[in-house]
Amino acid sequence: MPSPFEAEFDDVNKNLDFYVDEVFQNLHSEFLVMPKGNGFVEYPVFEAGYETLKHETAGFTKVGPDRLLAAVSKTPMSFVVLRCILGFTPPEWAYYASRESGVEIPQGSARTIDRNIRVNPAAPLKLSGKVRAERIHAMISAAAGILSKGVPQVAETELHRLAKVDTTSGQTSLGSIASLGVPYPVLLYERFLGRPFAGHRDSISELVGNIVENAIEDVLSKAGVSYRKTKRAEKVQGFDQAPDFIVPNEFNPQIVIEAKLTEDDGTARDKVTRIQHLRSLSLDGMPPGDAKFEVVACIAGRGFGVRREDMKKLLLATRGKVFTLKEIGRLIECTAISKFKTK
């Protein structure tokens, strides 16, 4: 039997379970492999920052602000390493430093400092600007205060963010870890409390989410199809929620495309509901058997492969026009988009 986007809708409707299986077998989870993206730090670069920080602090036994600043000035990646020792995100570090020093450090500024170092780690750290230098000094001084004091006492029902094996006793524990290493069960426990590669996954979430949209754009462009790609939360006349793509444009919508990659079944369900709403809009005020525009779904990720009932709803709302990531190459020939092909 054909794929659902190749079949007559009557056949899809009669054999929904079969076509659900067809879609499911072409859905593959993308969570094991991630793009590096711009700003990814290779391990040797990170290690160079660590070794400079270790050297300038005499094996983390002298963690005063001047020594930390010397390391950061010599190897800017030491600034990122220092943040990782604290276990903070850039905004968290900025907030803590602002509270301790009284220096205003906007979250966006902290992100920019961190990202500039990651994108171009070989570039000298610019401390020429008064405001920028003041913010970096405040963040480094706050870090020095944390590493010298260790974890304050908290209630038994609470867990302090700095109660990590390397910072729980300040520079004492930090120096021990640097010289002796970390027992594997301790590493696993702290990984359990956190998430492996969580920071990187968060930083490239938009890049991952764009995989399906980029594939659609590539297919449409190569076929010479006129299309309108909408922006997030953009208002488009005729739609209370703008679809991801409109062919040929919002003034004459003939085909709308919703694109989504998700590993979460709840997010997948939300997208299905949105596509059902688009189908309702296409039928509003139209005679039976007719529609204002065709609704197409392009999907990826294991989130769509969890709930069979949701996939049935998706197939019905799109009249079978559901394409997985590996099938997007057939998007033109198997939908009404073929009428707009010029190449």
Low-confidence stretches: none
Q: Specify the biggest β-sheet.
A: 5 strands, mixed
Strand order of the largest sheet: 1-2-3-4-5
Portion in strands: 5-15%
- Write down how many β-strands occur, each being a DSSP E stretch of 2 or more residues: 5
User: Element order, helices and strands?
Assistant: HHHHHHHHHHHHEEEHEHE
Radius of gyration: 26 Å
Mean model confidence by pLDDT: 92
Report how far apart the termini are.
30 Å
Helix content: 40-55%
Which class do the helix and strand fractions yield?
Answer: alpha/beta
Overall geometry comes to elongated
Q: What is the number of helices?
A: 14
Write the topology of this structure:
Layout: H1 9-14, H2 16-25, H3 43-56, H4 65-74, H5 77-86, H6 90-101, H7 107-119, H8 130-149, H9 171-180, H10 184-193, H11 198-203, H12 205-222, E1 228-229, E2 245-247, E3 255-261, H13 265-283, E4 294-300, H14 308-317, E5 322-324
Parallel strand pairs: 3-4, 4-5
Antiparallel strand pairs: 1-2, 2-3
Question: Which features would summarize this protein structure in a list?
Answer:
14 helices; 6% strand
Give a verbal description of the structure:
There is one protein chain. Strands 1-2-3-4-5 form a five-stranded mixed beta sheet. Helix 2 packs across helix 14. The radius of gyration is 26 Å and the shape is elongated. It is an alpha/beta fold and 343 residues long.
Gist of the model:
The protein is an alpha/beta fold and 343 residues long.
